[in-house]
Specification:
By secondary structure, the protein is mainly β. It has helices spanning 10-17, 79-84, 94-101, 262-266, 520-524, and strands spanning 28-35, 64-67, 73-75, 102-111, 115-124, 128-135, 141-148, 152-161, 167-175, 182-190, 195-206, 222-227, 240-248, 254-259, 273-275, 281-288, 294-299, 306-316, 322-333, 350-354, 367-375, 381-387, 398-400, 406-413, 419-424, 431-441, 447-449, 455-459, 478-483, 493-503, 509-515, 539-541, 547-553, 560-565, 572-582. It is globular and about 85 Å long. The protein starts with 9 loop residues before the first helix and ends with a strand.
Length: 586
């Protein structure tokens, strides 16, 4: 993953360095350098379906940062080098000419959580032997020598891994020892890896009330632009945002897509939630934010709907709180008196959960990732999770109808006392189940990478959607294993953020997602050990329903993840990759 090969055409490079097309007969590639702890080798790959084709990380393309040759800053030759060189004595203005003959262009390609592939393109109007110094902005440098032919250019590729996420200024200096002339260029880059800042639940969008958009339903095949940066306490420069998105007042089936650009949302091949007529559906989403500070929500159905969006946090390329993945652990079940009093939560009642210091959540955690489930509700309503000690917000995390079992992922800030509050917003009692799946803490260093566009890694309805899998539903009481990180015994991914959707349901059931203890080759050779059936649920469904939910889960020792159909009838499963967590510098 850290050594993705870069291919650049001669025409593109010539344009970057300002050469006339056709004047350069060939691209001179002087070499490649790697720096950083993990940049010296790529992951091993095996057969077609076992290597890069199965490596979901390699399918996530990072951003490109460029500084063209026109931005080159030159320094005139001086001292003995300027006076004594043969070229400097050829003409009265030779020093000035020598100063102008060197140019350097830069292209930096972000990769993974902390790595950049830098192209340094040096051009010259006459022959030059140059020394090149790359200052990475973190106190480290790389150097190399290059030979540049007249009116040609030298292309050098260097890979660098940063020890921490953030923004860095890369400065490249090119010096000709023969004349003393120098040329320099620089660019500022930001890592793809981002850390989390908790935000008290706040409603940013409600088309029923005119909050964040016009007071009107989002029309069929139409989108709404939601300003995120600057809303609430979300800062400018935010890279992605955590929203609890809800669709309601539906009159026909459809789905909603989300992206940082309108065109991407309207042409998305994936969805963040699905709905049918008369249904209110929530789902937690992590959405990239556009450079203009907006996200776009597209109603892909053929009838208008109302949309609600509540923010609970955001990610920036700066130190805040990293993610710590945990084995799903049930910490509350009101049916059994686990973690709270036994018995249903009364209508408009609430209870606190001491969250830090238990189930692997460290002291000092600023937020926790939960799967929140309501079951046996006696009437319609909603659940809200929020930091303890704060007033109940006018937001919701789970919406339900009488008798319905519904789960939804939640990322909720932790109160100053290390507790969170769960409130039943319905008129009548309901049972509540809480599973903790991870935490965000300044002590954790695992950073999130969000692809520009989510992509589908599994659709059991489609042939060959992943690993050349034929189309067939997930059988009852069985599991589907996916190798998401290629062939590896040392996974780099700490956790996966996956939008899972179950459809074509024929009975009631629930989905569990857990790491797989096997390697891919174990399944190929028929030597796999059947994983232990999980007890926690990622989402619940009833017959005929289509249900989405965000799942954040680590992979197993071989980067493998299992999806369990815990129902007694077959279902179709759709999985979209919305992000992954890695530890920078590791």
């Amino acid at each position: 993953m850290r050594n993705r090969r870069l291919v650049v055409s001669a025409a593109i490079v010539a344009a970057a360095v300002g050469l006339v097309p056709g004047t350069a007969s060939a691209v001179s590639v002087s070499g490649a350098t790697t720096s950083g702890a993990k940049a010296s080798g790529a992951k091993a790959s095996g057969a077609k379906a076992s290597g890069a084709d199965r490596d979901a990380v390699r399918k996530v393309k990072g951003r490109t940062f460029s500084s063209p040759a026109e931005r080159t800053v030159t320094t005139a030759p001086s001292g003995a080098a300027a006076k004594g060189s043969a070229r400097a004595q050829q003409a009265p203005d030779a020093a000035t000419a020598a100063d102008q003959r060197l140019r350097v262009a830069l292209n930096a390609y972000a990769e993974g959580v902390d790595t950049f592939n830098l192209e340094t393109i040096v051009s010259s109007q006459e022959y030059a032997l140059v020394d090149v110094v790359i200052a990475w902005g973190d106190g480290t440098t790389d150097t190399y020598n290059a030979s540049v032919m007249p009116r040609d250019f030298d292309l050098h590729r260097t890979t660098h891994q940063y020890a921490a996420i953030g923004s860095y200024e890369i400065k490249v200096t090119v010096k000709d020892p023969a004349t003393g002339g120098e040329a320099a260029n620089s660019l500022t880059v930001a890592t793809e890896g981002t850390e989390f800042t908790a935000h008290e639940p706040k409603r940013l969008l409600d088309t029923r009330e005119g909050i964040g958009a016009a007071r009107a339903k989002v029309g069929a095949r139409s989108s709404v632009a939601l300003k995120v940066a600057g809303a609430g306490k979300v800062p400018a420069g935010v890279r992605s945002v955590v929203l609890n998105l809800t669709v309601t007042n539906t009159t026909a089936p459809g789905h909603v897509s989300a992206a940082q650009e309108k065109g991407l949302a309207e042409n998305a091949q994936t969805s963040v939630l699905n709905y049918v007529a008369g249904q209110s559906v929530p789902n937690l989403v992590i959405v990239p934010v556009g450079e203009d500070g907006y996200v776009h929500l597209f109603n892909a159905g053929w009838a208008p709907v109302d949309l609600l969006a509540d923010v609970t946090g955001y990610f920036t390329a700066s130190k805040a709180a990293g993610y710590g993945a945990l084995a799903p652990t049930r910490i509350v079940d009101t049916r059994e008196g686990l973690g709270t009093a036994k018995g249903q939560v009364p209508g408009y009642g609430s209870f606190d959960i001491g969250i830090t210091g238990r189930a692997g959540v460290p002291a000092g955690a600023t937020a926790v990732a939960l799967n929140l489930t309501v079951t046996n509700p006696r009437s319609a309503g909603h659940l809200t999770a929020y930091p303890a000690g704060k007033p109940a917000p006018t937001t919701s995390n789970v919406n339900f109808t009488a008798g319905q079992t519904v789960a939804n992922a939640v990322i909720v800030p932790v109160g100053a006392d290390g507790k969170i509050t769960i409130r039943n917003g319905g008129w009548n009692p309901a049972d509540v189940v809480v599973d903790v799946v991870g935490s965000y803490s300044p002590q954790n260093r695992s950073a999130l990478v969000v692809p520009r566009v989510p992509f589908r890694i599994l659709d059991t309805r489609v042939n060959g959607s992943w690993n050349d899998r034929p189309a067939f539903p997930l059988a009852p009481r069985s599991y589907e294993w996916l190798g998401l990180e290629g062939d590896t015994s040392t996974p780099e991914v700490d956790a996966w953020a996956l939008n899972t959707t179950v459809t074509n349901t024929r009975g009631d059931g629930f989905l569990s997602v857990a790491p797989d203890p096997n390697f891919w080759v174990d399944y190929v050779r028929g030597l796999e050990r059947k994983p232990q059936r999980p007890v926690s649920s990622a989402l619940n469904w009833t017959a005929g329903a289509t249900v989405p939910n965000l799942v954040q889960t680590p992979g197993g020792k071989g980067g493998m993840v299992d999806f369990w159909n815990q129902g007694w009838s077959s279902v179709d499963l759709v999985v979209d990759l919305t992000g992954f967590y890695e530890t920078p510098g590791a």
